[in-house]
Each structure stands twice: as C-alpha cells, then as structure tokens.
Amino acid sequence: MALLYFSFIFVLFLFSLKLFFPTRKFRNLPPGPFSYPIVGNLLQLQQPFHRTFTQLSQKYGKVFSLWFGPRLVVVASSQSVVQECFTKNDIVLANRPHFLLGKHISYNNSTILHSCYGEHWRHLRRILSLEVVSTNRLNASYDIRRDELMKLMQKLAHVSRNDFCKVDLNT
Question: Which InterPro entries does this entry report, sorted A to Z (predicted)?
C-alpha cells in the first residue's frame, strides 16, 4: 500500500513539475496536445495512425508537435508546408538525430547513414557515388544481383505456397 501511495505522489510531482516549470528550450514549438512525462504523447496515439494525425491536424493546424517519449517530433500535415520545409529550410532539416545506437554501431555517427550534413557527409556521398554505385560498378555486379533476386523470388514463391493468406488493402 505504501508503494502505491509513493508511486501516486511521485507521478503527481512529475505532472506538477511539467505544468509549473515548462522547459525554456522548447518555448517556440508549434501547438500540440498535452504530453505526459517520460512517455510523451505515445499513449494518445491510436491506430490507424494516419487518422489520428488527421484529427490532430484539424485540431492544432497544419504543423503541430508531439513527443515520442523524450524525442520531439514536429509533424507537417500539408503538402504546401512540406514543400516549404524542403525548399526554404532544407539545410536545417537535413541533419539526422543522434541515437545511442549510432554512437556505438556507426563509429560515433560517422557513417553516411548517421552523419550530419556537412563536409564529411558530402565527402562520403562523393565516394559512394563514384566508387560504389557508379555505372561501371553496377554493371560489374549485374550477374550477382540477378542471381540473388532469383533466389529471393523463389523463396517468396515457396513461402507463399505454404502460408498463403489474403491481405485486406482497404484499411
């Protein structure tokens, strides 16, 4: 009983901290629903997600903010807003978030998938386009890719013969 009482007081304390001491770092965010401590807005999202996002955009506007746990997510739900984001603010939005996995697996976020936009990323992209996916390299690996594709198609055909099921594409 004491543990339940302590848990209730602790959760109440977290809510009061959130209400009375909002973080100043995120003061200029777009509007969005109230977020809970630790989980953010994850409990408010219901499937199908596209309908939930449509309802949120009708309530908060074309641009709104959500918290997925400790991560801030800004949702642009209009084609004109997305086009403006990618034409006027493309450099700002080109960076990728830094995750703990990227630090340990991707050599401190230094691979092309995890590095931020800048000189290092442009250098990696140049190497990738000239050495890995150039026309000569793709032509040289054509037979290998064709054989692997045939293996994949045979495996998919075999699996679909054993466990065939209908998929409703209307939802």
Answer: Cyt_P450 (IPR001128), Cyt_P450_E_grp-I (IPR002401), Cyt_P450_sf (IPR036396)
